[in-house]
Amino acid sequence: MNEREISLLVNGVERTVNVPPMSRLLDVLREELGLTGTKEGCGEGECGSCSVLMNGELVNSCLVPIAQAAGASVVTIEGIGAHGKLHCVQRAFLECGGAQCGICTPGMIVAAAHLLKRFPHPTREQIEEGLNGNLCRCTGYMRIFAAVEKAANTVEDDVAAGVSG
Amino acid sequence: MQSERVVGKPVHRKEGLAKVLGAARYIDDLSMPGMIYGATVRSAIPRGRILGIEFGPGIPWDEFTVVTAKDIPGKNYIALINNDWPCLADGFVNHPQEPILLLAHPDRHLLPLAVAAVRVQYEELPSVHSIEESETVRTIVWGEDNVLKSYLLEKGDVDAAFAQQDIIIVEGEYTTGAQEHLYIENNGAIAVYNERDGVTYWGSLQCPFYAHKSLMAVTGLPEDKVRVIQVETGGAFGGKEDYPSMIGAHAALLAMKSRRPVKIMYDRMEDMAATTKRHPSRARHRTAVTKDGKLLAADVEMCLDGGAYSTLSSTVLSRATIHSGGAYYWPNIRVRSKAFATNTPPHGAFRGFGAPQALFATERHMDRVAKAVGLTPEEFRSRNLLRTGETTSTSQVVRQEIDLKGWMARALDHAGYYEKKARFDRENAGSLRKKGIGFAVFLHGSGFTGSGERYLNSLVGVDATSEGRIRALVSSTEFGQGTNTILCQIAAEALGVDYDIVEMAPPDTSIVPNSGPTVASRTAMVVGRLVHSAALGLKQTLIASGLLGERYTTDELQEAARAYIAKHGGLCSMSRYQAPPDVYWDDQKYRGEAYAAFAWAVYVAEVSVDLATYSVTVDDFVALQEVGRVLNPVLATGQIEGGVAQGIGYALYEKVSWDRGLMKNNQMTNYIIATSQDLPPIRVYFEEVPFEYGAYGAKGIGELPMDGPAPAILNAIAHATGEDFNAIPLMPEDIAERLAVESPAAQEMAAV
Asked: Which residue of A has its CA nearest to B270?
């Protein structure tokens, strides 16, 4: 096996793995680093269940060879909330019924957090467009839209209260 | 009692925190020390004899565990109704993707290469791939006549009604396609075996005791040596009712032979190609109606494509048969139904379970009957919808206070139906974007059909732990619908304690009693009711023991429970199913109380048909339903919205492309479900008529929303285009073919 030593920043912590360079970022996160919150739904970049942030961009981790993530900063669902607190999107998903079976939820929350970074007060069209790479089979998306809209308002509250999201 | 009432409140999902944190552990998130990986060699042909199996070069076969039908210590079937579904093909295959041989190895990356290196030689035999081919019986692929099951439902004198003078007869044929569940989590299993404990199976599944029964049969092990544990399940929709018994049995066989823990995890392509889908259907309606629009008689022929083995087809067909009359009063009705065998992977349970097929046909047909008698769809329906005191197709008296006419009026009002209908009629002329509005009125029976709930004889427990926490003991599982939450709400309400101190016992067959399968919209109504009575029993035990007064706080109940357990060693109350009184069902004549209760609904769809691309968009959707008491408004609304989304997909997006029984588009890239940009606002309204025998008045809810969208949308498309489309999924190419040829719309477009 032509393994290679690759270092990357995962949820703010420097991690080094010895893996074949074409290993999927998804497998490295789940199997090497034990971060099983990131899910595999299709393995071909269609469903978005494996969504993570790489250098601030939303990516499907099933399509990213680990070599491409060398030196990158990766944020997974496990790192989306700061300091052991729920991220405002996580809290809104809980309150609005955004999660049903929960398998798309980690990817969906990462995508929603990314969306709110780009558009702190998104319109319904921006939400629909921003989440179109994340498939959900349970909810029909309506509770998810409600959760994102609620989280958008919470961002403001959190900022006003001096709390980091 | 100090606690607030919890039923009817939007309390948070019990396992919600773990889910939003990404901490919920699904089957692929679990691992065992020494675990190896399993894979399946499957049939490459639709039907034929297996002549030989060769293990090709380049693979270290001595490192592999190999299991064939000959290695099965018990019976070679998955235990369902007829036990005709082999666990592994033994010398003969009846559909593409049928499991033939199992492989296991510590390196999971080696498995796809090994599967490809196994060469199976076949003698291919003729196969059949549609209801039409199967019913000709030119090639017999199952039993004596390819008929997996048939029913005859009859009420009144249908032939005499059709022989009357001065009636109008309307006929129509309606077809529906297969539908893939597309739960986002693929099927997966882990099994462990040792001689002392037997087999333990951890799975992504709906029905732990179904899997338990199959694993007992396949392994030949006694009841106490088979243990099934449901882990967090990432969607199911019926797709994890029967197939997990297969994959669990496979993992168990590999674990028994290798003496190592074995994980089998399907990838998306294998899951879509090999596992069950919704039954395709063909319904033929012949309706007699008076000139003033009163329904006289229905003569319905309902056929399902069941696939290669009988599996659950008889029960799916049963529900399709009973729902074929829709929500109407028929003085005379006959439904002849058949499920045919084809050489396709067996079709199985999918949310709605035969009702979406039946109701698509009925509700599309009713719009056509209305037109034939010169009435609007709403006026025609208002003359024929069931009323309290009238009888359904199975002669069941509707005892519940229903107001279908009023509910229809309310749904149409929410949708702005009359204004839109008039406006679209006015504005469509000359427009390249035709707008339409249509609706469906329908019902869905809650719980098992007929005598089913009596046979299930479900048992439920509520106990207390030594820490004073309350637990619901059921085999009813959570896979997104809210089982955990509503059952804990019910127990908390019955005990008068805080929701936070109630939890679910692990869904493990060695811990929980058999409360039946998690199917048929039965969890809230039937199992919930048993949780309610078990909780009341626990409370009575504490009060009778003198440890608890008649009025108490949550803390006092917990203290009393701890004291009781210290004294007696445990505190558990059980409750067994009792049928509501005055219920009779005749399995032979298909007559009587088909369901303890029905849920009712009126769905209204507004659509646009683009005459340049022939694509349809649903622009607005109103879903009004009566499901008894709503136990949790956020969860219930989410259930309806999700069901409507699946129903929209069923009507317009989700097409399974078959090639001689093999699904060709077995990827998310080419099997299309709705994304966040493809859905209209789904506006949900509940009417609540509490059902006396349901938990706090609840009836079934999960399947209902799957039934209405397709007919409502196709009725709206008929309004928009003036064309009757009677087959789903309705794809742009189907619309193009019809409209581009000689319809008025095409001629009009040519003139624009």
From this structure: A42
3-state secondary structure of B295: strand
How far apart, in whole angstroms, are the C-alpha atoms of residue B587 and residue B608? 45
Q: How far apart are CA B703 and CA B353, in angstroms?
A: 8
Q: Using CA atoms, how far apart are residues B548 and B213, in angstroms rounded to an integer?
A: 41
Evaluate whether B124 touches B59 at the Cβ level (below 8 Å): no
Q: pLDDT digit string (tens) for B529-563?
A: 999 999 999 999 999 999 999 999 999 999 999 99
How far is the C-alpha of B162 from the C-alpha of B332, rounded, in Å? 10
| CA atoms of B605 and B680, how far apart (whole Å) | 9
Beta bridge partners of B171: B286
CATH 3.30.365.10 fits B16-25+458-576, yes or no: yes
Tell me the average pLDDT across B378-390. Answer: 98
Answer whether B712's CB lies under 8 Å from B646's CB.
no
- Torsion region of B682: left, alpha or beta (phi above 0 gives left; psi -120 to 50 gives alpha): beta
Question: What stretches of B148-221 show up as alpha helix (H) in DSSP?
Answer: 158-162, 208-219
| d(C-alpha B524, C-alpha B446), whole Å | 10
- What CATH number does the domain located at B31-125+181-274 have? 3.30.365.10
User: What are the backbone angles phi and psi of residue B538, rounded to the nearest 5°?
Assistant: -65, -40
Q: Which residues of A touch B233 (CB under 8 A)?
A: 101
CATH number for position A25: 3.10.20.30
> Could you tell me if A11 and A71 lie in one domain?
yes
Q: What is the C-alpha separation between B616 and B26, in angstroms, rounded?
A: 37
Residue written as token pair 């065998």: B341
Q: Is B608 within 8 Å of B433 (Cβ atoms)?
A: yes
Q: How far is CA B337 from the centre of its chain?
A: 20
- Contact state of B13 with A99 under an 8 Å Cβ cutoff: yes
The closest alpha carbon to B344, from B390, B400, B277, belongs to B277
Residue among B635, B667, B675 whose CB faces A97 most closely: B635
Name B575's bridge partners: B460
Residue with tokens 């199975």: B394
CATH class of B281-449+590-751: alpha beta
Q: How far apart are CA B70 and CA B88, in angstroms?
A: 9
Can you tell me the mean pLDDT for B139-146? Answer: 98
* DSSP-assigned letters across all residues of B632-658: -HHHHHHHHHHHHHHHHHHHHT--PPE
Q: Please identify which residue in the block is written with the tokens 């291919």.
A: B124
**What is the pTM (predicted TM-score) of this model?**
0.97
Interface test with B, best of A137, A145, A149, A154 (most B CBs within 10 A): A137
Q: What is the 3-state secondary structure (H, E, C) of B309-331?
A: CCCCHHHHHHHHHHHCCCCECCC
- In order of A109, B219, B245, B530, the CA distances from B223 in angstroms are 42, 11, 15, 24
Task: For the beta carbon of residue B572, count every other beta carbon within 10 angstroms.
Answer: 16
ipTM over 0.90: yes
How far is B464 from B542, CA to CA, in rounded Å?
11
Q: Is residue A165 part of a domain?
A: no
Same domain, yes or no: A8 and A71: yes
CB atoms within 10 A of CB B409: 15
Contact B25 A36 (CB under 8 A): yes
Relative to beta strand B118-124, strand B48-55 is antiparallel
Quick one: closest CA in A to B14, which residue? Answer: A94
Same fold, B16-25+458-576 and B31-125+181-274: yes
pLDDT digits (tens, 9 = 90+) for A40-83: 999 999 999 999 999 999 999 999 999 999 999 999 999 999 77
Contact of B682 with B623, CB cutoff 8 Å: yes
Residues β-bridged to residue B213: none
Tokens of B613: 């691309």
